[in-house]
Amino acid sequence: MAGSEEEKTVFDMEAASALVKELRDTCASGKTRSYEWRVTQLKCLVKLCDENEKEIADALRQDLSKPEFESIVYEIAMLKNSCRVALKELKHWIVPEKANTPLAVFPASAGILSEPLGVVLIISAWNYPFLLSLDPLVGAIAAGNAMVLKPSEIAPATSSLLAKLVMKYLDNSSIRVIEGSVAETSALLEQKWDKIFYTGNGRVARIVMTAAAKHLTPVLLELGGKSPVVIDAGINIQVATRRIIAGKWGCNNGQACISPDYIITTKDYASKLVDTLKIELERFYGKNPLESKGLSRIVNSNHFARLTKLLDEDKVSGKIVYGGERDKENLKIAPTILLDVPLDSLIMNEEIFGPLLPIILVTTNTSTSVNFLCLCSLLGCNYRENDTCSILQR
Q1: Catalytic residue among 222, 282, 350, 351, which?
Q2: Is the predicted pLDDT of residue 375 greater than 60, yes or no?
Q3: Of 98, 49, 51, residue with least CA distance to 75
């Protein structure tokens, strides 16, 4: 009996195909196209947030040890704001626009009418598992689509909660949640969608693009990258460092695609920057940040091992000027600053996505050279003063 129940819950290619057919039938009925349906679903999303704030924050704490304040501000409140913007602008978005016509087709008239694409797939990420799951849902609902949401299995508590809440608050004939891992995602990607929205890393993005190409499905990718911060003389150093700390460690302990990935500054200014960062970090997280309740943990043991490998590389391990402490059992790494890290090190050749912050030094104190180095770093040139710029040679 238990075996037959288990078989019913298997989500394979056949189940995925049946799900897409069911959603296409809903789309064909015109149900999701109406203004009333879209408004109702958006209001239900706001209600979902309002009535389950504590439960959502608890799930995020289970998955990432996120502080409650951070969960409310960066996940719940931001989603509610997206809903409010969509509710405010929806009528304007769906009104047909007049379009000019050439004299050759006189007396014809023309207009631009925004149409739903149809059935869309949303594959979300683990670092902001609530916001990055439901924020794309807001756009899909506002556009009048039916959709499938695949939350990240790396954040299982939030994934399970999303499945429960979406079923309770939203229209299940048009909006569905499929939990699971690689097998379930692969089954979904084999289907023909009208659009795929993926948030995550470049490796999985290539898999998504390859699957979408079979059906010529348009894809929206929200990926990460190495985001530099340029620090030069003549700034308010305390304000700057507090903003860096808030953006780096205050946003999921560096596990965010827009967190500062590294700093570029001059040799003359580096010591002042490091000293100020140390003072401000202690004010934020205390003398033992591993015990701070204001820091999220690393999401799982695989990512902990990846970050440890970056720190333990021979050419990097001696560059730590602050932090570096780790708690493998609780998957915590303290805020860590590394000074004068080699550009050919592992930490500078992939997105860090964690609480490690390298500082790259240049040998001049002119803002022109600093900004030029920043530009080159974004374009893939390992320029340093007295080196030849590979960008200019292209």
Answers
A1: 222
A2: no
A3: 49
Phi/psi for 111 (5° steps) reads -150, 165
pLDDT, one tens digit per residue, over 246-300 is: 999 999 999 998 899 999 999 999 999 999 999 999 999 999 999 999 999 999 9
| Distance between CA atoms of residues 248 and 243, nearest Å | 8
Nearest-CA neighbor of 37 among 174, 193, 195, 176?
174
- Tell me whether residue 184 is one of the annotated catalytic residues: no
For residue 138, CA distances in Å to 84, 116, 143, 267, 392 come to 10, 13, 9, 46, 43
- 112 forms beta bridges with 97
313 SS3 class:
coil
pLDDT digit string, tens, across residues 85-137: 999 999 999 999 999 989 898 899 898 989 999 999 999 999 999 999 999 99
The residue among 244, 245, 256 whose CA lies nearest residue 128 is 256
Contact 197, 218 (CB under 8 A): no
Give the other-Cβ count within 10 Å of 128's Cβ: 27
Q: How far is CA 175 from CA 137, 228, 291, 349, in A?
A: 9, 38, 41, 39
Q: Tell me how far apart the alpha carbons of residues 270 and 276 are, in angstroms, rounded to a whole number.
A: 10
Structure tokens at 151: 């939350």
Written as one string, the DSSP assignment of 168-227 is: HHS-TTTEEE---SHHHHHHHHTS--SEEEEEE-HHHHHHHHHHHHTTT--EEEEE----
Residue 222 among the catalytic residues:
yes
| Cα of 173 vs its chain's centroid, Å | 28
Average pLDDT over every residue of 65-83: 96
- For residue 264, how many C-alpha atoms fall within 13 Å in the half-sphere facing its CB? 28
Alpha carbon distance 366, 268 (integer Å): 11
Cβ-proximal residues to 348 (8 Å cutoff; 6+ apart), any chain: 226, 262, 341, 342, 358, 360
Catalytic residue among 251, 257, 376, 381: 257
Flag whether pLDDT at 169 surpasses 60: yes
Q: How many CA atoms lie within 13 A of 145 on its CB side?
A: 24
- Per the DSSP assignment, residues forming a β-bridge with 200 are 223
| 8 A C-beta contact, residue 338 and residue 359 | yes
DSSP 3-state of 247: helix
